[in-house]
Amino acid sequence: MRYPLLLLLSGILFSGCQPSNPAQRVVDQAIEAHGGRAYDRLTMEFDFRDKHYIVQKNGGAFRYERVQTDSTGAEIKDILTNTEAYRTRNGQRQNVPDTTMDKYKYSVNSVAYFVLLPQPLNDPAVQKEYLGEVTIKGKPYHKIKVTFGAEGGGKDHDDVFVYWFGRDDSSLDYLAYLYYVDETGLRFREVINRQKVGGIVVQDYRNYAPADSALAVREENLLKLDALFEAGQLKVLSTIEKKNVRVQ
């Protein structure tokens, strides 16, 4: 009879430690549904737009790598870790201007961020706000707004994201964002393929933009992209697909 009592006490302690912020609860449930502890230590490899990516996480340490071949046949690697970012050519480090390396770093980090969602939403710089429940294609969703603190938020800390998580299954089915880096724009993504590899849910997306090119790039318009999607007022820009996914 001792084990049920221990489990009951554990349940009470656990429930007492649950976050009071509804946005945090939704994100925690989504991370668990998409991989949970499997995110803590992983090596993920995949091909995306003619480049090969390796995403490694070990607790708080990470290493993201993009591999491609240039026009001469040389192997080019862009590598990003907690402490540095650099490029190699056939294994030799290259001297790359900081402004150029920043672009490579941003690009590699962006791909890793999206493929690991929703796990990055618990990064320290992330600020989450619960926007309530909405319905898309007859399915109820929790709608969460995400912004970033300047400290630790990166070059693109002014960007604003919105995520839609299934109320009943915690699945991340849609996301949207307003971005300012290099240019400005509004994007909305719909999951079109979902697979579970090595305990991690990996998703592909259909990428949309407002059909009305005159729509102002403002937060109030970002927040209504789900309504525009339902009304058929978004146009398809591209398909975002990862191929040959492996996770260990």
From TrEMBL:
<protein>
    <recommendedName>
        <fullName>Deoxyribose-phosphate aldolase</fullName>
    </recommendedName>
</protein>
<dbReference type="Pfam" id="PF20113">
    <property type="entry name" value="DUF6503"/>
</dbReference>
<dbReference type="InterPro" id="IPR045444">
    <property type="entry name" value="DUF6503"/>
</dbReference>
